[in-house]
Amino acid sequence: MKKFNLFKEIIVVAKEDFLRAASSAKSFAITYSGEIRYAPFADDTISIFEGQIPPLSPLSTTLSRPISSMLGDNYRIVEDDDRILIKASGAWQSIIGFNQKRALYDDTTGDGIAEFSDKKLEDIGWNATEFNISYREIVEQFEEKCEGILLCIEQEEPYQFSGMGFVFNIENAREIGFDYCVSTIKDKLENDEDFATLTDDEAEAKDYFLS
Fold first, then answer.
1. How far does CA 73 lie from the centroid of its chain?
2. Upper half-sphere CA count for residue 210 (Cβ side, 13 Å)
3. Paired strand residues for 3
4. Is 9 buried (19+), middle (13-18) or exposed (0-12) by CB count in 10 A?
5. Which of 16, 59, 94, 115 sees the fewest Cβ atoms within 10 Å?
6. What secondary structure, in 3-state letters, does 93-124 show?
7. What angle do CA 135, 139, 144 make, to 5 degrees?
């Protein structure tokens, strides 16, 4: 997976496309790759902005507004000929809200990853916990081996991280997650004394992976 760190990345959008969307009175999204999409948004949308640009008030003394202010105070926008350049890290809390329902996993709180949005992967993750395999361990396999995007804010001093994961091929992620759990559980059954005798729940999880 590619890490897309909003503290470092600049989103580049065609100015003509942006102005068309801004004046359309329609709800639109700007994706991390700079694409404009209109609602309803596809499930593979990974956005840094969603909404519509409200029209100017009839009481306004100006006939237009600067592009730099159109997305609000949490975005920094610079015009560059026929492009606009967007820094979006200041809008991170809004970006979490835009994307949570579409992300495979959410690592934006101090509590860590609690579930997968994909039902089959959630079954894998839930059963794996019986053998002390965490969601984070499974996610590390995705981040190393899957194609996808880790949309995040990350800085080193003081260290801060918050992110959401999206994989492009869910079947591949399911296979990688399942295979990792199988190999890990086999190792634990052979070498970990804690699993010399299994509880009913552990035996059920073993059957899920090794039957």
1. 23
2. 17
3. 150
4. middle
5. 59
6. HHHHHHHCCCCCEEECCCCCCCCCCCHHHHHH
7. 155
pTM: 0.91
DSSP annotation of 146 reads S
- Two tokens at 179? 């295979």
| Helix, strand, or coil (residue 83) | strand
Rounded Cα–Cα distance for residues 16 and 128 (Å): 49
146-178 residues labelled b (16+ CB within 10 A) or e (exposed): bebbbbbbbeeeeeeebbbbbbeebeebbebbb
Residue 50, token pair as written in the block: 């969603």
In tens, the pLDDT along 10-40 reads: 999 999 999 999 999 899 999 999 999 999 9
- Rounded CA-CA distance 199/88 in Å is 49
- Residue 110's Cβ-count burial label (10 Å; 0-12, 13-18, 19+) is exposed
Is residue 15 within 8 Å of residue 83, measured between CB atoms? yes
pLDDT digits (tens, 9 = 90+) for 102-114: 999 999 988 899 9
d(CA 185, CA 195) in angstroms, rounded, equals: 9
Determine the residue type at 112: G
- The number of helices, as runs of H, and strands, as runs of E, in the chain is 6, 10
CA distance 117 to 18: 31
